[in-house]
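FAQ

Q: What does a record look like?
A: Structure on top, sequence underneath. For example:
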């Protein structure tokens, strides 16, 4: 264990370790390319509940569906209400993705600077409470970025016309994309970013709805259109733009006792 410059506990990079058999099994389950993200989320991801404080993450059924969709599809667009844990799910998945996939560059783009910092704070919080035998060591650790000893890194920035330009991005997460103002900024950002994803990168977009003519709305409509111009159905339930759409209806309340679950729409 070592302390970063800002006083936060981190794991030293490239250190030699001795594992018990149980720890080896835990690590092996987290490394599973098919289901490791879910084992990590359920067993090693801690969150700050607004009422109950520090809690081990216990995902709802629709949150498990979100994880599965993030992992199974390259392009994801999610329309969800506030307080449904969409940012928490994304933060946990990004943490797992960076620690268990080498040489990945993950970009977080939020509509406000405070939003980008909030997402990184959730990632940092979860990382700091993760046991040493599971988490990766870090070579750089600050409020805007994390660099792991496996070559992967997470960078958080505000969404602008130049965000991500010149970067080789493996995965980009766009938070509250419908609220990027002005919309010309969102359009220029998406136009400049799209070519970098064409080489195999993944994209996760989450937002509450804002209006019917922004970039997010256009991507959402495309993801919900599953018949192309030739009348042929798209594959794997994705839309004509290649995005997989997931939505939770606003009228269905979320119960923290797990007694009531939101209705999830996958199209």
């Amino acid at each position: 264990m070592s302390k970063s410059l800002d006083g936060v506990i981190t794991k030293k990079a490239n250190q030699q370790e001795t594992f018990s058999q149980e720890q080896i099994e835990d690590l092996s389950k987290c490394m599973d390319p098919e289901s490791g993200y879910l084992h990590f989320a359920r067993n090693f991801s801690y969150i700050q509940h607004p009422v109950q404080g520090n809690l081990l993450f216990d995902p709802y059924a629709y949150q498990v569906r979100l994880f599965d969709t993030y992992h199974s599809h390259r392009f994801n667009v999610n329309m969800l209400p506030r307080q449904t844990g969409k940012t928490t799910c994304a933060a946990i998945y990004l943490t797992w993705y960076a620690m268990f996939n080498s040489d990945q560059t993950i970009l977080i783009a939020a509509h406000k600077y405070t939003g980008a910092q909030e997402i990184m704070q959730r990632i940092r919080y979860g990382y700091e409470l993760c046991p040493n035998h599971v988490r990766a060591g870090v070579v750089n650790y600050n409020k805007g970025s994390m660099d792991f000893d496996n070559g992967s890194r997470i960078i958080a920035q505000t969404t602008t016309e130049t965000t991500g330009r010149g970067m080789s991005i493996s995965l980009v997460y766009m938070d509250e994309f419908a609220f990027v103002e002005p919309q010309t900024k969102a359009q220029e950002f998406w136009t400049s970013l799209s070519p970098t994803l064409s080489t195999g990168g993944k994209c996760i977009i989450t937002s509450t709805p804002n209006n019917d003519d922004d970039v997010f709305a256009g991507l959402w409509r495309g993801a919900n259109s599953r018949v192309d111009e030739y009348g042929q159905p798209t594959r794997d339930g994705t839309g004509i733009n290649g995005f997989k759409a997931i939505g939770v209806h606003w009228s269905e309340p979320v119960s923290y006792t797990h007694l009531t679950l939101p209705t999830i729409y996958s199209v």
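Q: Is there anything notable about this one?
A: Confidence is low (pLDDT under 50) at residues 1-7, 253-267.
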